[in-house]
Prior knowledge:
362 residues; 20% strand
Amino acid sequence: MNYKIALIRGDGIGPEVVNEAVGVLDTVAEKYGHTIEYVDVLLGGCATDAVGKSYPDGTAEKCRACDAVLLGAVGGPKWGSDKPAEQRPETALLAIRKDLGLYANLRPAVLRPALADACPLKKETAEGGIDLMMVRELTGGIYFGQRERYNTEDRGVECADRMAYSEKEIKRIGRRAFELARLRRKKVSSVDKANVLETSRLWRSVMHRLAQEYPDVQYEDVLVDNCAMQIVRDPGQFDVLVTENMFGDILSDEASMVTGSIGLLPSASIGDSAPGLYEPIHGSAPDIAGQDKANPTATILSVAMMFRYSFQRPEEADAIERAVDEVLAEGWRTADIAKPGERVIGTREMGEKIRERLKSKG
Length: 362
Ligand code: IPM
Ligand code: MG
């Protein structure tokens, strides 16, 4: 096959981890007889520095002309919340997701066997294994609602962020969750705050209707506060979790941490047609940028998700995931996952180890 992939290298450690992932893409291409063309797309703080805005004109069009988008990370203290919106990297990230219609964000949290002791939970809890898929609604809710800031006479400045959800938005993300559950352990936990929020009551009723269409999938409602607690108490109980944008943002960070390192977790953002966008869950880590310290594994596993969800090539996806597991099983560790006293390798060497593994397999 011939694939065209947009590369958003971004800020901080972004360019370093994308480099390693591109190396893996090239290795996979060679091994399986694909050709890959890369298109560099400028987005984030680096775009603000280069052209004055984090989301340059034409960005979405450039991405739309590709089969998939790979993103490193964006953001950094240089472009903080005191800067105008159009200069902030986060604005660009939200905009590209919205413009490409990427309403479904899949964030798997898997405790990789070789790293079971990196899990911060009790040993008995970790032993049961963790393999959950967070399905986060990505283009609606409070992150996209109207924002207001105004002066009042007696209370100083007041602000408001509107949270809205339509049946249509809930249904399409719900469907994704049920379909994914069918390919996994057939359980959907829908997370809401229906005891307080009207959007959550709508969310719940739409999910209940959908659940009837999927009688083979076990379904449950979980309140978001209880869910946060259950993720640290017994994450093994969850298969697919589906939730609105902000709850998913928060819970996916929590779920990633119980697997030992946020440096290991990939994500896929997909819509109905536009190219999918694949990125590690971690941020741009400006404190270690340019030092060959970052763990490229999450970005490399994002490439595996790209093969699985955008290219319908599970074989390539499995091969990448296996290579990562083998390298970890051999004991290779970047600083974020090393135990005290363990030998630490850098970003480039970790990428190289994974590529070597990929090459050596028939
Ligand atoms: C994430 C990030 C973003 C989000 C920020 C940077 C806008 O936290 O991908 O989880 O909230 O979606
Ligand atoms: Mg987040």
